[in-house]
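Moderator note: this is an archived Q&A kept for reference. The question asked for a predicted structure of one protein chain; the sequence and the answer are reproduced below.
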Amino acid sequence: MIAEFLLPDLGEGLPEAEIVHWLVSEGDEVTLNQTIAEVETAKAIVEIPSPYAGTVQGLHAAAGDVVAVGSPLVSFAVEGADADSPVPASHLDAAQLGAAAAQGRAVEAVFEEPGDTAADGIATRATPNLVGYGAAPSSGNRPRRRARGSATPTIDSDHAVREAAPHDVLRTGPIDLPLERPRSTPPVRKYAKDHGIDLVLVAAAHPGEAVTRAHVEEYAERGPAAPVPVTTMPSPDELLANEPVSTVPPAEHRVTRTPIRGVRKHTAAAMVRSAFTAPHATTFLTLDVTATTELLASLKHDRALDGHRIGVLAIVAKAVCLALGRTPALNARWDEAAGEIVEHHYVTLGIAAATDRGLVVPLIPDADRLPLVELADAIAELAATARAGRTPPAAMTGGTFSITNVGVFGVDAGTPILNPGEAGILAVGAVRRTPWEHHGEIALRDVVTLSLSFDHRLVDGAEAARFLTDVAGVLREPGRAMLLR
């Protein structure tokens, strides 16, 4: 029997996904729930499992192709049935796969073994199994991924993402280059491309392995230096003709064209929608935060906090949560369809993170209930997950207020655009040692600028100023946090 597997909805109603990497090829034998591909949606990189045990009959898209949800992805020849009877994989519950993806893991559907209950030899089970949580209950071991054209198990994709990508060792003898595209993650491929390194050469020294950032870095350290370009002298005829040699590159090399897709496409659409829907206004406040920086310096020497990294952003996040309780208009949303203002009695805090794939804003649910140490740990964890491209779609939906730390780029202030559905976003500038009035004298103090953008339909200038003053009060004197609630 030929079974056709259609690309399921991977969560949040996203209409398409880009094929990042195939982990199987035509003719490969696959097991139930074996990961067959990595795809990138507008929000995350997701692993796709096989709903069948059988042989890969055909791949309907190549790496780099964008596939619409519901379009054919791969065909399987399922064992124990008539190979000339094609049927669609209609029993695959795309909604369940999408829900699993939204929980923050790669998607994996669980199917019963052939002959259990279904007339055609394949039956479905309602509960999806997630990659990283073991094999399906009906099998004894977790399925292991095959390399293309090889029976050798490969490294788990989650591990490869965390390892993230270096260069191959330098060889003096002949190198057996792989016949297939080296297996690696998008951050690794970008790192290699930025450093002018061919992943095929890296993979040659690590047969059967996924290329990691460590492999690429090792190759870069041991490999030969980049060749020095040789300048060709003009011919005698050119010299006699007195014609200068053109140094202008061909027209096709004067620009670089990159398809608008993935995170950048999603972010652009959201920002345009926000900018032309909510009337933005921005207010600024520059303040002395020396007391906060001195507090953070003292916490670094507290043995009870070993393993925890508390920075200015964590203090700001805590101050924002406290201030939102006193200015609820900034923790609300404008519901145009219902004709209502929806005020939230909780804080789902978004922290903007710049990644290789573009800007993402992962969320910290119930941030207002977290003590400072747990809030700092949550910020560090979501930043690492976002940079690895593993933030699930559900972790970026439903925020009530956001913070963007532009200070890490050396920027003092800005006018950030609201995330759709939120009433406010706070930009935190760089902390600078600046001459400042202190107790009637001029002294060097740590100074920062806060920029608050807000939806003027929900928040007026007085409320925005009151909120910004409350946040600043905590940063000027961290002990004030004991008085706010």
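Archived answer notes: The chain has eleven helices and 20 strands.
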